């Protein structure tokens, strides 16, 4: 039986969803216990969520531990070379099984009572099996709790809902844009070093929105980047480009364009040629015009590619950051940030790209500090008592029509500075929270 409190909240969520269609979103959503609890129960328990990049676990026995919502997951490369994901909890009394964030192990042994599992999840060892269980325990029935996994171009996703649609259907055509980050060159991409990893007093949704194509903040929050020559654009041209979203699925990307920026600028010439060969003609047409590509896979995985000048005024080097915003409480999250590089690029380029990423969007990166200072203050304000009935405007581009000449999929509008992607993001978020996904 649904309580009056539950009904009241569900009614409120229906109102929020209607408000999103009209270009409004409630400030309280960025720091609210009820909203956080609903996200855990209705969103992260059903959506496809990023777990790891395949290059993080290249050899049999390699593993990392990651999260889907509040569930800690072991993601491992098995002895047969496939990828397995299991809840990081012993089936005997619930102890955390694997206490390291990454490593290599063919088996995991519980430190409490010694139950032992293959890294694929099968229970293979039980102390005092004969004396204690007298044949009553069937090991094959007590393996680790398995998590459904699938992958795209090196990205490993997990889903806790066995009835959810396939990952391919979930991405819904956004693969076209993901390829720009993931299929650079003939051999795809790989992570360069372990992820930066820290906890911040910031709501995950603020970050997901920002990276779904918020070019509006760049000339203000990162103004120094223009003034000192770190950007190959200016404040007057930065808004040019496209905002592309997959209607009804929440994914969105901002594609910034500068009139004088060379095709595939910031990549070495030989790598640029290999990239062209790995893309479709439509992708080459789109990507060759893009200076900055910043996008979010719903709900909480984002990417950014841009050139960055290590020496102000000189031509930049392209880098890619991949980032995951893991919620750990209302208004609080755990941040994971990787640098992606093309597998078949030269070591010199990989190192230059990693250095550019570190200076710009590493844990102590210049742009990262700008963003987190603002995001933390937004989160703090969203938790105050006076904002309960305060909405934010999301009305940019309400009347924008699709750019019919754009060869990429989804709803694509101009300019890049636009709220269309955000309305799509929040509409999907609301669909999950009202239980209609």
UniProtKB/TrEMBL annotation:
Keyword annotations: 2Fe-2S, Aromatic hydrocarbons catabolism, Dioxygenase, Iron, Iron-sulfur, Metal-binding, NAD, Oxidoreductase
Domain Rieske: 48-158
Pfam families: Rieske, Ring_hydroxyl_A
UniProt xrefs under SUPFAM superfamilies: Bet v1-like, ISP domain
Molecular functions (GO terms): 2 iron, 2 sulfur cluster binding; dioxygenase activity; iron ion binding; monooxygenase activity; oxidoreductase activity, acting on paired donors, with incorporation or reduction of molecular oxygen
CDD domains: RHO_alpha_C_NDO-like
InterPro entries: ARHD_Rieske_2Fe_2S, RHO_NdoB-like_C, Rieske_2Fe-2S, Rieske_2Fe-2S_sf, Ring_hydroxy_dOase_asu_C_dom, Rng_hydr_dOase-A
Recorded family membership: Belongs to the bacterial ring-hydroxylating dioxygenase alpha subunit family.
Name of the protein in question: Aromatic ring-hydroxylating dioxygenase subunit alpha
């Amino acid at each position: 039986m649904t309580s009056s409190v539950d009904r009241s909240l569900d009614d409120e969520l229906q109102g929020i969803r209607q408000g999103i269609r009209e270009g409004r979103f409630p400030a309280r959503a960025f720091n609210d216990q009820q909203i956080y609890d609903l996200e855990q129960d209705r969103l992260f328990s059903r959506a496809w969520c990023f777990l790891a990049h395949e290059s993080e676990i290249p050899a049999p026995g390699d593993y990392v531990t990651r999260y889907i919502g509040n569930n800690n997951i072991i993601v491992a490369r098995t002895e047969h070379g496939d990828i397995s994901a299991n809840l990081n909890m012993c089936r005997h009394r619930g102890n955390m099984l694997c206490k390291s964030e990454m490593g290599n192990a063919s088996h995991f042994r519980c430190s409490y009572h010694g139950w032992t599992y293959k890294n694929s999840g099968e229970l293979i060892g039980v102390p005092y099996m004969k004396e204690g269980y007298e044949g009553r325990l069937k090991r094959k029935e007590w393996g680790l709790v398995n998590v459904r996994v699938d992958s795209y171009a090196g990205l490993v996703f997990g889903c806790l809902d066995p009835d959810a649609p396939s990952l391919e259907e979930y991405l819904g055509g956004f693969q076209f844009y993901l390829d720009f980050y993931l299929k650079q060159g003939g051999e795809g991409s790989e992570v360069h070093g372990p992820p930066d990893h820290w906890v911040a007093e910031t709501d995950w949704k603020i970050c997901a929105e920002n990276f779904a194509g918020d070019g509006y903040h760049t000339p203000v929050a990162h103004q120094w980047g223009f003034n000192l020559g770190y950007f190959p654009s200016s404040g007057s041209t930065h808004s040019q480009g496209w905002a592309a979203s997959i209607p009804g699925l929440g994914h969105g990307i901002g594609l910034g364009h500068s009139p004088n920026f060379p095709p595939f600028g910031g990549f070495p010439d030989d790598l640029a040629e290999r990239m062209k060969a790995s893309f479709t003609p439509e992708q080459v047409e789109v990507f060759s015009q893009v200076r900055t590509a910043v996008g979010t896979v719903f709900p909480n995985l984002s990417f950014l590619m841009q050139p960055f000048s290590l020496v102000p005024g000189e031509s930049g080097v392209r880098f890619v950051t991949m980032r995951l915003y893991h919620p750990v409480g209302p208004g609080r999250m755990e941040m994971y940030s990787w640098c992606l590089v093309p597998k078949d690029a030269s070591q010199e380029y990989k190192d230059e790209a990693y250095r550019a990423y570190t200076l710009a969007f590493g844990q102590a990166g210049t742009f990262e500090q700008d963003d987190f200072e603002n995001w933390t203050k937004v989160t703090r304000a969203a938790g105050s008592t006076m904002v309960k009935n305060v909405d934010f405007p999301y009305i940019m581009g309400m009347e924008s029509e699709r750019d019919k000449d754009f060869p990429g999929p989804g709803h694509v509008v101009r300019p890049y500075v636009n709220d269309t992607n955000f309305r799509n993001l929040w509409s999907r978020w609301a669909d999950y929270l009202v239980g209609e996904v």
